[in-house]
Each structure stands twice: as structure tokens, then as C-alpha cells.
């Protein structure tokens, strides 16, 4: 009796899973087919308003993005272990990424943020006293009131 009940439940769960997979596949297929790749539409699109990456990425780098990202990640990881500051390209990528998620009218001193990140981004976060002071410095730059309110 219990075995039959378990088989019936597992069968229903299996069918339910198949239905969910089918409908999600149908939804994504229909959604993606609603916007077919079209060179005419692509030419009418506006260019991105913000720079997505540093200028050091060449066309070859973009074509081999997976390889480049692995190399950059390995390089950053080894330098982070040695507490070496970020390179100017890495800093610019961080600033560009923050630009991309920040409202266009945000009152942020980007040069001050870049300088602060250059000074502190490579330091260990495990030194809590220093980390607290550095987070206060970052809050003064990023937050509208110029700091954390307590």
C-alpha cells in the first residue's frame, strides 16, 4: 500500500516536473522568437551610453573572451594574495561597472572613488579596524549624506 502510494506520488512529481520544464521551454522559445536577430533593427538600436570595459581590451581579446577572463582572474587572484594594488585597467573596469549600475544623476566623485579604491582595494578585509575605517571613507563618497547614519 505504501509502496503504491510512493510510486503514485513520485509519478505525479515526475509528470509535474515535465510539465514545468515544457512550459518554461515554450515560454523562453516564444519569447526569444519574438525578437529575432535582425540587422535592420540592430542598426536602429542606440549605442550603449556607458563604457562597458577598459580600453585595453582589443578585438582579439573580445573574440577570445573566455581565455582573457581566465587569465585576468588568475592574475588578479595571485596579486590579491600578495596584496598588490589593482592596475589602472582594473580600477577603470570597477569604475565603469559602478557607472553602469548607478543612476545618471548620482552625485559621486568618481576620481575620489578611484583613488580610494587604488589605496584600499587590495588590503585584507580581515583587519576589522582598518576595514571599518575604509568603509567609512567609501560611504563618504558613495552615500548621498556623505556617510553612514547611526
Keywords:
150 residues; mainly alpha; 7 helices; membrane; transmembrane helix; transmembrane
Write up what this structure looks like:
There is one protein chain. This protein has 150 residues and is an all-alpha fold. It has a domain at 59-142. It is built from seven helices and no strands. It has helices at 2-34, 39-44, 59-63, 65-81, 88-101, 110-120, 128-142. The relative contact order is 0.06.
Main beta sheet strand tally, sense and closure: none
Proportion of residues in helical segments: 55-70%
SS-derived structural category: mainly alpha
Element-level helix/strand string: HHHHHHH
Mean pLDDT, all residues: 73
Regarding quaternary structure, how should these chains be classified? single chain
- Taking Cα atoms only, what radius of gyration do you get, to the nearest Å? 24 Å
Share of β-strand residues: under 5%
Number of strands: 0
Gap from first CA to last CA: 62 Å
Amino acid at each position: 500500500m505504501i509502496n503504491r502510494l510512493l510510486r503514485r506520488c513520485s509519478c505525479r512529481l515526475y509528470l509535474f516536473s515535465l510539465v514545468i520544464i515544457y512550459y518554461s521551454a515554450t515560454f523562453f522559445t516564444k519569447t526569444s522568437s519574438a525578437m529575432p536577430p535582425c540587422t535592420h533593427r540592430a542598426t536602429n538600436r542606440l549605442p550603449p551610453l556607458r563604457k562597458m570595459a577598459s580600453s585595453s581590451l582589443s578585438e582579439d581579446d573580445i573574440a577570445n573572451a573566455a581565455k582573457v577572463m581566465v587569465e585576468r582572474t588568475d592574475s588578479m587572484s595571485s596579486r590579491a594574495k600578495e596584496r598588490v594594488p589593482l592596475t589602472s585597467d582594473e580600477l577603470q573596469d570597477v569604475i565603469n561597472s559602478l557607472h553602469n549600475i548607478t543612476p545618471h544623476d548620482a552625485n559621486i566623485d568618481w576620481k575620489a572613488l578611484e583613488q580610494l579604491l587604488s589605496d584600499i582595494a587590495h588590503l585584507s578585509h580581515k583587519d576589522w579596524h582598518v576595514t571599518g575605517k575604509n568603509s567609512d571613507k567609501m560611504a563618504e563618497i558613495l552615500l548621498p549624506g556623505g556617510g553612514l547614519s547611526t
